[in-house]
Amino acid sequence: MEENVKAYLAQILAYGINLEKLSNDELPIFVRSLIKWYERDVPDLYFTGDEDGVICQNEDDLLVSVTFHNNHLKFNVFDLDILDDRENSVLVAKVAIATVGLCQSYFNDLPESADPPVKYPEIQAGSEEEVITVKDEGFGIV
Question: Strands 46-50 and 62-68, how do they pair?
């Protein structure tokens, strides 16, 4: 796994994911979608949960929980010693990756914003060059 991917996974495991587009009414639907997504993408684990959180476990250990509070999704590893086992740490990483995948899919399916799109000035080929003179205030590039 590339270092920047590892860094991103560490960041979301430590700080969670902001779900500001998710309303409280949508949370039960999101959680059901998340559990179905987990069951499909991480078949090595068992998942159970509701709006309060989702527990992810293997046959032996509770590995990680995913909780929701104030439009923020947070990962909680039950025992950091579990991560010393390479197999368990890979499973926790798979849960994080699956969560990012669902968020990307779920929020890309939302209807477009009611705000009009931002209009940027168009650049046309062949237009005249415009030169703006600027007073030199002594700040030069060395």
Answer: unpaired
What distance in Å separates the CA atoms of residue 122 and residue 104, rounded to the nearest whole number? 30
Q: State the burial class of residue 56 (Cβ atoms within 10 Å of its Cβ: 0-12, 13-18, 19+).
A: buried
Q: H or E segment at 79?
A: none
Average pLDDT taken over every residue of the chain: 80
**Helical (H) or strand (E) element with 81:** none
Q: Are 62 and 49 in contact (CB under 8 A)?
A: no
Consecutive H or E run containing 75: strand 72-77
Q: Say how far apart CA 93 and CA 42 lie, in whole Å.
A: 10
d(CA 114, CA 63): 41
| Position 87 pLDDT exceeds 60 | yes
pLDDT tens-digit readout, 37-55 = 999 988 889 999 988 899 9
Rounded to 5 degrees, φ, ψ at 65 are -120, 155
Distance from chain centroid for Cα 16: 8
pLDDT above 90 as % of the chain:
10
